Each structure stands twice: as C-alpha cells, then as structure tokens.
Amino acid sequence: MDAITQFAVLTLITIFAGILAFAMAWAFLRGAFRLMQPAAVRNSRTSAPRVSQQFHSDLVPGTRAAARPFALHR
User: Fold this and answer.
1) DSSP E strands: which ranges in the chain?
2) pTM exceeding 0.85
3) Of 64, 61, 37, 42, which Cα lies nearest the Cα of 53?
4) What is d(CA 8, CA 12) in angstroms, rounded to the nearest whole number?
5) What is the spatial distance between Cα 73 and Cα 71, in angstroms, rounded to a whole number?
6) Can you tell me the distance from the alpha carbon of 9 to that of 16, in angstroms, rounded to the nearest whole number?
C-alpha cells in the first residue's frame, strides 16, 4: 500500500511539474515575442488603430558612418 501511494504521489508531482514547465515556457515565449516587436507598434487595446503607418528604412548617418569601415571593398 505504501509503494502505491508513493508511486501515485510521484506521478502527480511529475504531471504538475510538466504543466508548470509548459506554462513557464509559454510565458517566456510570449515575453520574447513582445520584446521583439518594434517600438512604434502600439497595443491595439489601448489606442485606436492607425490608418497608415510610416516605415522608415533608411540608415541614419551615424549608422552608415559606423558600418563604413566594415564594408567590403570591391
């Protein structure tokens, strides 16, 4: 009887640990995706959606100057 109780407790603790690990991985994954969003993106629940969002893909002069020494010269 004692062995069956210990096995049942071990099984329940293992199931609980698996659920907890899944929940933590899910939370960290959601946090990582939230951190990867651009700073210009606003939460749709707190602000009205914009009709058009401008995307500025040019390099700023400081970035261009910093990357110039690493450019391949052909």
Assistant:
1) none
2) no
3) 42
4) 6
5) 6
6) 10
- Which of 39, 33, 36, 35 lies closest to 53 in space, CA to CA? 39
Rounded CA separation 16/21 (Å): 9
* Dihedral of the alpha carbons of 51, 39, 57, 50, in degrees to the nearest 10: 0
Contact in structure between 40 and 53 (CB atoms under 8 Å)? yes
Question: In the numeric block, which tokens belong to residue 26?
Answer: 């899910």
- Determine phi and psi for 58, rounding to 5 degrees: -75, 150
Look up residue 56 and give its two tokens. Answer: 């500025």
Q: What is the CA radius of gyration of the chain?
A: 25
Question: Residues 6-50: pLDDT tens digits?
Answer: 999 999 999 999 999 999 999 999 999 888 877 665 555 555 555
Instruction: Give, as one character, the DSSP assignment of residue 49.
Output: P
